[in-house]
Design a protein that fits this description.
Strand 6, helix 16 and strand 7 form a beta-alpha-beta unit. Helices cover 51% and strands 9% of the residues. The strands form four sheets. The chain has a six-stranded parallel beta sheet with strand order 3-2-6-7-1-8, sandwiched between helices. With 570 residues, it is α/β, with parallel strands linked by helices. Helix 9 packs antiparallel against helix 10. It is built from 19 helices and twelve strands. The protein has three domains: 183 residues, Rossmann fold (3-Layer(aba) Sandwich), CATH 3.40.50; 208 residues; 55 residues, no CATH class. It binds adenosine-5'-triphosphate and magnesium ion. The site of magnesium ion has 3 residues, from helix 2.
């Protein structure tokens, strides 16, 4: 029996509308991957050759799961059954024509591309190695091997920079002297960011800028004004602090500026005008003495004047610090370039590419080479992408260039062929930031698809994974957090699993310990309480299986999660 769901029309559209570019955006457990598998099966039943379809996901595990699901839907349909998730769309099963097409397709099912985005790109490169000007024998280094090579290149650079004596490397020496323990880790992180964002460079600072002169001028203007209007002691006293700032920065940017100078400039003397633990100036509100000296109206005007001059000193100081920071990053980055170049050289010698190279080369091919683009577009008229929230801008550029109705130099201007793309994702599940997943890129891609004359957004809301009490809890709490500001607005889920009385409530909030107990003790009590809950569930809680039957819960059915950087003390 099919489950009657409120969004059935949307689901049916996902598996029958092949002329629209669709974005399916929905939460976890709503059947997105299922819909994608069914769409592939229905495309095959609609006469599309398996070789023309690419179904892409982001990790090996999810691509392999997708492949299994597609095969299982196809097999079930061919055995004369309609899988549960297609029952509402196919109440009478496949037509004779669809069945014939699916039978024909099954002989070529191994030509169906179900893969990760990286393998997909690798295939494009291997097929077009000559055009990509690459050694046809070039291999892709797995992530671990590439990371080890990069670590080696970084460590060599770091050690060399410390002893090279070159001005360029002074940044590394100065920073290491300041914090020998932390600096290597921080520089390594910075180098990793540079590695992931090959084309990104820190903004080039304006080497002609003279923030030192501007600060001195602001200090002088303030001092002159106070000399003419010495009505308030505190206002006068600031002058001494500002003099310290003058000696700290005067002439600092007059000629070549080495890293030692920048480092000194990054730490101005602390003066009375500054806020606690900050270089920003505290608010200035002292109209009283000015009114007293010059009467109400004139006092207010004078107070306004000195306020502006005081604010200008604060602003110029912050501008000088910002400029100093950008020059420090620029110099550091210049030195670090050697590590990145060495890494590239290591890869070249070993005839390997890393994952970033793979995407870069694939992008250059499908954007920069019309022949290759047309060949790939003809080979893959239909591209389906699961877990799109995990894509980054390079991946999106590649997919759009292939799905466009002609060569494009900028993917944002792509006009998509009808039905070329089927994007499935849940922006709330974007978890691969560390791998460059870029939620802004996902949003731009989604908007571009749904803004096309042949594009549409499909909302799916029925959830098949969780019981109604859990869904109610999630709806209640998530609606508040995902309020539509910087995050996508929350779309409430509809439960499909009927509420059944259970041995325990589905959602419980435990309050552990009292205020007097230390964190260690609370952890211990918490572990004890969680252990007890597990003990009550195992062997007692009925767990529903895919075929609808039930069995008692096992330890393996339980997932325990904790906030990152905390341990569960079990
Ligand atoms: N139309 C349907 N009727 C009944 N059950 C369904 C239907 N569609 C999907 N399911 C079941 O719901 C569960 C979740 O499906 P699926 O994995 O496709 O969801 P998903 O949205 O891709 O989840 P995730 O966000 O975690 O990737 C699966 O067990 C699937 O068999
Ligand atoms: Mg899924």
């Amino acid at each position: 029996m099919s489950v009657i769901v409120p969004d059935q029309d949307a689901r049916t559209r996902c598996v029958t509308d092949f002329s629209t570019n669709l974005v399916v955006e929905a939460a976890a457990g709503t059947g997105k991957t299922t819909l994608m598998s069914c769409r592939v099966a229905m495309l095959l039943a609609g006469g599309h050759h398996p070789g023309t379809i690419a179904a892409i996901s982001f990790t090996e595990a999810s691509a392999s799961e997708l492949g299994k699901r597609i095969h299982s839907v196809v097999e079930e349909l061919l055995s004369g059954n309609v899988p549960l998730e297609l029952k509402a769309t196919l109440p009478n099963g496949l037509s004779a024509e669809q069945e014939k097409a699916l039978e024909a397709a099954v002989d070529h099912l191994d030509e169906l591309t179900v893969t990760t985005i990286h393998s997909f790109c690798q295939q494009i490169i291997v097929d077009n190695a000559v055009e990509a000007k690459l050694d046809p024998g070039i291999k892709v280094a797995d992530e671990m091997a590439a990371d080890a090579m990069f670590d080696q290149a970084f460590s060599d650079w770091f050690t060399d920079a410390l002893s090279s004596g070159k001005t360029l490397d002074r940044a590394v020496v100065v920073l290491t002297e300041d914090d020998p323990l932390e600096v290597e880790r921080e520089l390594r992180d910075l180098a990793k960011i540079r590695r992931q964002h090959r084309r990104a460079q820190p903004p080039r600072p304006d080497l002609w800028a003279r923030p030192d002169i501007e600060l001195v001028e602001a200090i002088d203007a303030y001092a002159r004004w106070v000399a003419d209007h010495p009505f308030d002691k505190k206002t006068n006293d600031y002058v001494a602090g500002f003099d310290q700032l003058r000696s700290y920065c005067d002439g600092a940017f007059a000629g070549e500026v080495d890293f030692d100078t920048l480092w000194r400039l990054s730490r101005p003397p602390r003066i009375g005008a500054m806020k606690w633990k900050s270089f920003e100036f505290e608010a200035f509100q002292r109209p009283g003495p000015f009114k007293k000296a010059r009467g109400e109206k004139e006092g207010v005007r004078l107070h306004g004047e000195v306020l502006t001059l005081y604010g200008a000193v604060g602003e110029k100081l912050l501008a000088l610090l910002a400029h100093t920071g950008s020059r420090m990053i620029w110099q550091l980055s210049g030195s670090m370039q050697a590590a990145l170049d060495a890494y590239d050289e290591m890869k070249r010698r070993a005839a390997v590419m890393d994952f970033e190279d793979l995407l870069e080369h694939a992008r250059d091919l499908v954007i920069g080479n019309k022949q290759v683009r047309d060949k790939v577009a003809t080979r893959f008229p239909i591209i389906l992408v699961d877990e799109c929230q995990d894509s980054d801008i390079l991946q999106i550029e590649i997919l759009f260039a292939i799905a466009a109705d002609g060569p494009v130099s900028n993917w944002r201007q792509a006009r998509l062929r009808p039905g070329a793309l089927f994007f499935v994702g849940d922006p709330k599940q974007s978890i691969y930031r560390f791998r460059n997943a870029d939620i802004a890129a996902y949003r731009a891609a989604r908007d571009l698809i749904i803004g096309q004359p042949n594009g549409a957004l499909v909302a799916i809301t029925a959830n098949f994974r969780s019981r109604s009490s859990i869904i109610d809890f999630v709806n209640l709490n998530f609606a508040e957090v995902f309020d539509g500001g910087s995050q996508p607005a929350y779309v409430a889920l509809h439960p499909t699993i009927k509420h059944q009385p259970a041995v325990m409530p589905h959602v419980v909030r435990l309050s552990i310990g009292t205020e007097d107990e230390g964190p260690g003790e609370v952890r211990r009590l918490e572990a004890h309480a969680v252990g007890e809950i597990c003990d009550q569930l195992i062997g007692r809680l009925p767990v529903r299986q895919k075929d609808g039957s039930q069995r008692p819960a096992r330890a393996g059915d339980i997932a325990l999660m904790a906030a990152s950087h905390t341990e569960l003390w079990l």
